[in-house]
From TrEMBL:
Name this protein carries in UniProt: Retrotransposon gag domain-containing protein
InterPro entries found in the cross-reference section: OxRdtase_Mopterin-bd_sf (IPR036374)
Domain of life: Eukaryota
């Protein structure tokens, strides 16, 4: 299918690129959110998988997590707010230069 494992990264760009590519593949196939969630969790390896195991409710299955929960938790862990804000500013600057 083309989706690659994610082992964890301190570089937010690596995490964002992996998530975008994986999400694109899953959307093209037409998977519903619950299948996306299961599939993407299966792609986590090494540090990323270790992180996932310490997310509250995952191991003991006391919390029913969703695709949107995964996206939020993944970004909280691998994509710092500072990086997200920087990308927003870059996008706005690009839009201003176009207009």
């Amino acid at each position: 299918m083309g989706a690659e494992a994610f082992k964890g990264s301190i570089d937010p760009k690596v995490a964002v690129d992996w998530l975008k590519k994986t999400e694109c593949i899953l959307n093209q196939i037409g998977y519903p959110d619950d299948v996306k969630f299961d599939y993407v969790v299966a792609l986590l390896e090494k540090d990323a998988y270790d992180w996932w195991l310490i997310v509250p409710g995952v191991v003991d299955n006391t919390v029913q997590l969703t695709w949107n929960d995964f996206l939020r938790l993944f970004k909280e862990r691998y994509v710092p707010i500072v990086y997200q804000d920087q990308k927003k500013v870059e996008f706005l600057m690009l839009k201003q230069n176009e207009g």
